[in-house]
Amino acid sequence: MTVRTPRLSRLRRVVSEGRGGRPAEARGGRPRRRGTQPKVVALGGGMGLSASLAALRRITGDLTAVVTVADDGGSSGRLRDELGVLPPGDLRKALAALCGDDDWGQTWARVIQHRFQSKGEMHGHAVGNLLIVALWEQLGDHVQALDLVGRLLGAHGRVLPMSAVPLELQALVKGHDPDRPEEVGIVRGQATVALTPGEVQSVHLVPNDPPAVPEAVEAVLDADWVVLGPGSWFSSVIPHLLVPELLDALTQTKARRILSLNLAPQPGETEGFSPQRHLEVLGRHAPKLALDVVLADEAAVPDRDSLTDAAERFGAAVELAPVARTDGTPRHDPELLAAAYDRIFRMHGRIGPWR
């Protein structure tokens, strides 16, 4: 990759100083660590991670998102196929979720989420995807480029890919072919797995031993709290547990670990799943993983005893709270989810230097 040093040095300086000479911190960039805030790392992808980040940025200024990089659909998939880059879409969504509620933050959130509409090759591409990939090509460094985009946006936190190599998600699915309901076959690609008919038995990554981004491992080991989920269970949540170095960090960290459950089963991927079944399949993929808290919406848990039993196998307590939007859609409300996280952080003990 070609690095145009003088131009990029000026760009870094302008973005670091902020518009009108204001420091990035004054515009909502990653602030200095305060003694009263926990270090929080959130893992996931897509809209589930975005919901968690939109809540968490309201209660801490020390927030890191670790994002799956197995997406192969839409604009991300096209850029990945054509340029051989990491899929930028979930990284873009995480950055947008970390934008502030002021005019600067909301303007940039809309800009990077904007998709071109045309009859040509640009149709469907998101502005943020192109910006991220352009900086990757200019800088030759995934983390440095994402940090630079975050400063430009005034993001309330940091966004990291879970691995520096593009990954393919593969699933063993029973009944993927309706004419052979008992047959187990392989379904390839995150976009396909997310919508597959049949019953997903397990997932794995190709390559099957991908390297983790060192900064992501460091963030998990240094965290006070780690949040896993909500999100597409097999295609956004579980993949983090399939990166060996990241799983090791999750099992070794002294941070407390929260699993945030979805509000409803996802058509195709987790059709018919109960809350406790989500835990069961998670345990099959990472049997050594321990949790401290399982958070669920109280209206989405018809059998609390069964969920409690499933959580206890991870060493976790169940916390029920109203976290869904009141419009009847299965989406998390950022304010309610923030209140639930804040209460859990306080109830289950403050650990680390922020205590």
Q: What does this protein look like?
A:
This protein has a seven-stranded parallel beta sheet with strand order 3-2-1-7-8-9-10, sandwiched between helices. The chain is globular, with a radius of gyration of 20 Å. The chain has helices at residues 5-17, 46-56, 74-83, 89-97, 103-113, 127-139, 142-153, 190-194, 214-222, 233-237, 244-252, 275-285, 304-312, 334-347, and strands spanning 39-44, 62-67, 158-161, 168-174, 184-188, 199-206, 225-228, 256-260, 293-297, 317-321. Helix 13 links the parallel strand 9 (293-297) and strand 10. Helices cover 40% and strands 15% of the residues. It contains 14 helices and ten strands. Helix 6 packs across helix 7 (142-153). Residues 1-8, 14-34 and 351-355 have low confidence and may be disordered. With 355 residues, it is of the alpha/beta class.
Describe the biggest sheet?
7 strands, parallel
Report the radius of gyration as a whole number of Å: 20 Å
Number of helices: 14
Helicity level: 25-40%
Structural class: alpha/beta
Number of strands: 10
Strand % is: 15-25%
Distance between the termini: 44 Å
Largest sheet strand order:
3-2-1-7-8-9-10
Element pattern in H and E = HEHEHHHHHEEEHEHEHHEHEHEH
Shape: globular
The low-confidence runs, each spanning 5 or more residues with pLDDT under 50, are 1-8, 14-34, 351-355
